[in-house]
């Protein structure tokens, strides 16, 4: 599997088991986690999530990446794939607040969707966000994802989008 992803302003690096400090920067920030049903995570919960992402890569070849600003080297966030209910592949992204509203989420999602065409063996890729997370809905639409349904995800009303993976 080719795990090399690039974009204009972002460096994508495969998540490693020792990346807890980066993951915790995101999961411990109340602003970043405001739309996540779990809310802020403690260190153990963050480690469990990191381990889950690593298992997704080991078991299903679905990677999660850390994102870095190519100009400054600063940590931007994480983005990648996960298997949902053993039948669908979800793409997701989480950015540090200082990188919001600068097009980084759109850039990351576009790069992941392009990469998935040759590297993810599923017919479609889904993404979801709570129904009131308007900014994330805009990112998905800009990247060519199509609205497919409203449903509960992790106990929260969400809007789902999809993109055929061809």
TrEMBL record:
Top-rank lineage group of the source organism: Bacteria
Domain called N-acetyltransferase: residue spans: 10-166
InterPro entries: Acyl_CoA_acyltransferase, GNAT_dom, N-acetyltransferase
Signal sequence extent: none
A Pfam family hit: Acetyltransf_3
UniProt xrefs under Gene3D superfamilies: 3.40.630.30
Name of the protein in its database record: GNAT family N-acetyltransferase
């Amino acid at each position: 599997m080719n795990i090399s992803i690039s974009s204009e302003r972002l460096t994508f690096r495969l998540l490693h088991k020792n990346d807890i400090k980066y993951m915790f920067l995101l999961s411990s920030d109340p602003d970043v986690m405001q739309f996540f049903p779990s809310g802020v995570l403690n260190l153990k919960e963050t480690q469990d999530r990191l381990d889950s992402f690593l298992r997704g890569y080991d078991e299903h070849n679905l990677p999660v990446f850390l994102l870095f600003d190519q100009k400054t080297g600063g940590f931007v966030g994480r983005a990648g794939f996960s298997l949902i209910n053993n039948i669908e592949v979800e793409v997701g992204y989480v950015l540090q607040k200082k990188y919001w509203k600068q097009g980084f989420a759109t850039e990351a999602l576009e790069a992941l969707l392009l990469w998935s065409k040759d590297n993810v063996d599923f017919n479609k890729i889904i993404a979801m966000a709570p129904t009131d997370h308007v900014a994330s809905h805009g990112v998905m639409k800009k990247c060519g994802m199509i609205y497919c349904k409203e449903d509960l995800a992790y106990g929260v009303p969400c809007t789902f989008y999809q993109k055929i993976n061809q």
